[in-house]
Amino acid sequence: MYIPSAFRVEDVAKLIAFIQRYNFATLITCDGAAPFASHLPMLFYPGAGCHGTLVSHMARANPQWQNFASGREVLVVFQGPHSYISPSWYKTEPAVPTWNYVAVHAYGIPKVLDQPERVLSILHDTILVHESSFERPWPGTLPNEYRDKLIQNIVAFEISLTRIEGKFKLGQNRSAADLKGVFDALSSSDDAEHHALAKIMAAECDIGKNAS
Fold first, then answer.
1. Of 46, 96, 101, 187, which has the fewest beta carbons less than 10 angstroms from its beta carbon?
2. Which residue in 183, 171, 172, 174 sits closest to 210, CA to CA?
3. Domain at 55, CATH number
4. Cα–Cα distance between 53 and 34 in angstroms, integer?
5. By residue range, what is the domain housing residue 163?
6. What distance, in Å, lies between the first and last C-alpha atoms of the chain?
């Protein structure tokens, strides 16, 4: 990923937190002829491997998992809040529109997990993570026959990460006044995506309240 120095994030703890927050990711592989992508929920286990391990599952009918046998590195893209940025929000003139966004790329070698107990553990953890915020979480209990059939129709896998890179493109290369203008515009919007991006700006950028 092209990352100018102003937008590069190397704080591993920050990147891990981002992966865990925006964990519906795009898995990209290549069979040697063409790229292939699937959109999947990912869980991150920081204590497994040198850089942590991602785990997920896909339908067995999805041919992508067959590419894992090649032993090639794969790419997992985690996308966060993003927004069009109007030059009218800047103090500096002249200026042109741009797009601000947050993204993390994770690379690693995938491995299919065949053990039924491991597959069940991944499914249980996935349910637990995504149900935990609900007032009445679904416990994940299923009839044994239905559960066993389900396992036969999915492929669970893990990706031992070799590297992680983060790009937080939030206007860090612009003046304090320009940053403040963008932050104010996003914060006053009715769009939830804009609010989420403004919240990240507040955490990542030195936005002075009295910038002029």
1. 96
2. 183
3. 2.30.110.10
4. 25
5. 5-85+98-173
6. 34
Residue 168 makes CB contacts below 8 A (sequence gap 6+) with: 7, 9, 102, 200, 204
Cα dihedral 123, 127, 129, 130, rounded to 10, equals 140
* Domain membership flag for residue 56: yes
pLDDT tens per residue, the chain (212 residues)? 999 999 999 999 999 999 999 999 999 999 878 899 999 999 999 888 788 999 999 999 999 999 999 999 999 999 999 999 999 999 999 999 999 999 999 999 999 999 999 999 999 999 999 999 999 999 989 999 999 999 999 999 999 999 999 999 999 999 999 999 999 999 999 999 999 999 999 999 988 554 44
Is 178 strand, coil or helix? Answer: helix
User: Is residue 73 one of the residues assigned to a domain?
Assistant: yes
Domain count, the chain: 1
Output the six-digit token pair for 86. Answer: 């109007």
